[in-house]
What we know:
Mean pLDDT: 95
Radius of gyration: 11 Å
Strand order of the largest sheet: 4-3-2-1-5
Helix content: 10-25%
Distance between the termini: 25 Å
Amino acid sequence: MRWTPARYDELESAARQHQRVAIVRHGQEVVVVAMGLTTVERSEALVCRIPMTGEDLIFPLHEIEAFQVVEG
């Protein structure tokens, strides 16, 4: 995925508002709650939570193939 300033801002806003985000990584889609952005091994990453289990996950931004903020 190419990270334009607009797409990065969209993800950052979703994290600030703890919105649900559909993320495609390694060809698989997962819907998570965006919790924030952080740095892992000198790369930016999305910190998120699986709504059903409460498990926290970290997705390095360079591994995200696509994302969409889920409305509602």
